[in-house]
C-alpha cells in the first residue's frame, strides 16, 4: 500500500500502520467481495473508472469513496502486472 497524507487522515492511520496493512482491510468485511470484483475487472481491462465503495477507518467509522479510478501497475518492461493503484477525490462519512 502507498498512501498520501489525505488517505492517512481518512483511514486514521500512521504511515507505518498503513504500509504494513493488507489493502483488503481498508474495506469492511461485507464490502471486500465487491472490492475484489473491481480489482479483478481492473486486472482484465487495465483500468476501472467510476468505482464506488464503502471503506472503514481504524476506529470503525465508515465512509464512501466515489468516482475512484483504479489501474494496473506494470514492471519496467511492461510485461508483468505488479500491482494496482487507485485515486479518488470524492468521499463522505456514512
In this structure, how is the largest beta sheet organized?
A: 4 strands, antiparallel
- Please identify the structural class as seen in this structure: alpha+beta
Overall residue-averaged pLDDT value: 92
Query: Which H/E pattern describes the elements?
Result: HHHEEEE
Number of strands: 4
Q: Specify Rg, calculated over alpha carbons.
A: 13 Å
Give the overall shape: globular
Helix content: 25-40%
Q: Kindly, what is the distance between the CA atoms of the first and last residues, rounded to a whole number of angstroms? A: 24 Å
Q: Summarize this, please?
A:
It is built from 3 helices and 4 strands.
Detailed description of the structure:
There is one protein chain. With 94 residues, the chain is of the alpha+beta class. The protein is built from three helices and four strands; from the N terminus they run H-H-H-E-E-E-E. Strands 1, 2, 3 and 4 form a four-stranded antiparallel sheet that branches. A hairpin with a 6-residue loop joins strand 2 and strand 3 (81-87).
